[in-house]
Design brief:
It contains three helices and five strands, in the order ααββββαβ. It is an alpha+beta fold. The radius of gyration is 13 Å and the shape is globular.
């Protein structure tokens, strides 16, 4: 299967990250992410495996990663501090998230 095959892109981490990044940068959604200073695709290589998700820098100086690939649930991504995401540890599902 080709990396850019539409079916594969729907469930591949980079396809999900790209779709989320595009949606969050759509001017119709900017009010929903007004807490964010910067949003981009986050990339890492851990144990030889490349992975992508969505990095969010907040206006109060925090850096989080939202990772929809782990759940494939649009309403319930995993949330990490950026440093933890790089090591794939201490994730919290959105439905359980209150704060770090």
């Amino acid at each position: 299967m080709d990396r850019y095959d539409p079916v594969f892109m729907r469930v591949a981490c980079y396809g999900i990250a790209e779709a989320v990044n595009t949606a969050l940068h759509d001017e119709r959604n900017l009010i929903r992410v007004s807490f964010a200073k910067k949003i981009n695709q986050a990339r890492r290589v851990l144990n030889g495996t490349s992975h992508e998700a969505n990095g969010v820098w907040t206006k109060d100086g925090f850096h989080y990663v939202f990772d929809w690939w782990k759940t494939l649930d649009p309403n319930n991504p995993f949330i990490y501090r950026y440093a933890d995401w790089l090591l794939d540890k201490n994730a919290v599902q959105f439905i359980d998230f209150t704060r770090f």
